[in-house]
Specification:
The protein is of the alpha+beta class. It has 15 helices and 15 strands. The strands form 4 sheets. The protein has a 6-stranded mixed β-sheet. The termini are far apart.
Length: about 450
């Protein structure tokens, strides 16, 4: 067990050294990426299916090959020559990979058996464990199995110049689409029709597909990720947009909250201002070398202070009161996936810092579903019924002003050695700018 922990630490140390020397302005070839992964492996064979377990193109496969052939399988063998072997049922049409050998798909069982039988370790995605059970020579072996995704996601954190260019294009597509949709909003429009309009406009601007779409008005906007709906939007409501587009396999992710009629009410302005101030304070600190936990705390403290000032919570230090309103994380990586990192565990978050060359979101939000104060929070184990009732009696009249309201503001930020760049800045988020733009309708 001790040796395994040491080996894991060595693997991540090698990757860390590589990433420290990687100039985010340089464009890596696909061969460079495969070589970097194999340095992290040191030994064994890595098996990567082009199709993931959701029957879609595996982003890790694309990152290492540039191929969209979902029939293919990639083997990486650092102790073999050639080190990269690609198996495809359509070898004539697949992109020729530099420093790799391409074989017909039917040759995969023979070649993989030869290579894996002599390898001390097998690297696979742990999402594919059921799939490799069909390969008897893998399932019956007693080899150590490791998760290659831990290596790939670490490498994918840093976006090279070509990746940054594609991300910027995807973000520009979504940004211009949102700006056009905002000025077309009218009382009575159907949410699903608005989503169809977004999809149509993004594709007309060069997007291959939509990565995520939400247009939740009123009550639907109080859900973090509202399902598509046939609800009509109404004057006086806020509508929460959360939209992304794929461009050459890279995706944007932008959220904005706007009033259907183009004019914020006093109550809407109050909540929106709390969220906006929290987001702006966080973005200011999203700098290379700064702790992610520190930025997370900035967001939470700003939101909680705003809620306290309005009288929506009575104790800023109460964890159960904070948990009523702080319902989701406030950032994630974007890239080939809309959440371009498998997870940021709390233990890792405690030591993780922003790195130059990463592209991340910042997306605080506050939500006021009508039943929020109806039931004592399950996580408030030591909270008595009497104390909760007293809290509700104190805050419910204030809560009524904000009921059925949701606000989320999300931007895509490139971290650089010189600070950061808000890539989605062309979508207005200041109240005066939103109201000015929406008057054009």
């Amino acid at each position: 067990m001790v040796m395994k922990k040491i080996n894991v630490l060595i693997t991540f140390l090698l990757l860390f050294i590589f990433l420290m020397h990687l100039n985010a302005q340089d464009t890596l070839s696909f061969n460079d990426r495969r070589e970097s992964v194999m340095k992290g492996m040191e030994e064994g064979v890595c098996l990567i299916y082009a199709k993931n377990n959701e029957n879609e193109l595996n982003a890790n496969f694309y990152y290492l090959t540039g191929s969209r052939d979902t029939s293919a399988i990639l083997l990486l063998c650092p102790s073999n020559e050639p080190k990269s072997l690609l198996f495809s049922s359509d070898a004539q049409n697949i992109n020729k990979m530099e420093n790799a050998s391409i074989y017909p798909l039917f040759d995969f069982p023979r070649q993989s058996f030869r290579l894996i039988a002599n390898a001390p370790k097998l690297w696979v995605s742990f999402m594919d464990l059921d799939r490799i059970k069909d390969l008897w020579f893998l399932y019956n072996s007693k080899k150590e199995i490791s998760n290659y995704e831990l290596l790939l996601y670490k490498l994918r954190e840093i976006k090279d110049a070509d990746e940054q260019k594609k991300l910027s294009k995807a973000i520009d597509i979504t940004a211009s689409t949102l700006n056009e949709v905002f000025v077309s909003l009218k009382d009575g429009m159907i949410e699903n029709d608005i989503l169809s309009l977004i999809d149509e406009k993004q594709k007309a601007k060069g997007a291959s597909s939509t990565s995520f779409m939400q247009a939740g008005s009123g009550l639907n906007g109080t859900q973090v990720h509202a399902e598509p709906s046939d609800k009509a939007i109404r004057d006086g409501e806020l509508i929460v947009f959360d939209v992304g587009a794929y461009y050459e396999n890279y995706t944007s992710d932008i959220s904005r909250t706007v009033p259907v009629n183009g004019k914020f009410t006093k109550a809407q302005k109050q909540i929106y201002t709390i969220v906006l101030n929290a987001q702006k304070a966080a973005i200011e600190k999203m700098l290379a070398g700064v702790s992610m936990l520190e930025v997370q705390q900035i967001v939470e403290d700003k939101l909680v202070q705003g809620l306290f000032d309005l009288g929506l919570i009575t104790d800023m230090d109460s964890q159960w009161q904070r948990s009523l309103y702080l319902v989701h994380p406030y950032y994630h990586y974007i890239g080939l996936d809309i959440h371009d990192y498998y997870s940021i565990m709390q233990a890792e978050l405690n030591v993780k810092t922003y790195q130059s060359g990463t592209v991340m979101t910042m997306e605080p939000g506050l939500y006021f579903p009508p039943d929020l104060l109806n039931t004592k929070p399950r996580r408030a184990r030591n909270l008595s019924d009497e104390d909760f009732e007293a809290f509700v009696n104190t805050t419910s009249s204030v809560f009524e002003q904000y009921k059925n309201m949701g606000v989320r503001i999300e931007d895509d930020i490139l971290i650089s050695d010189d600070g950061n760049v808000v890539l989605s800045a062309s979508v207005p988020k200041e109240i005066k700018d939103i109201e000015k733009m929406m008057k054009a309708k």
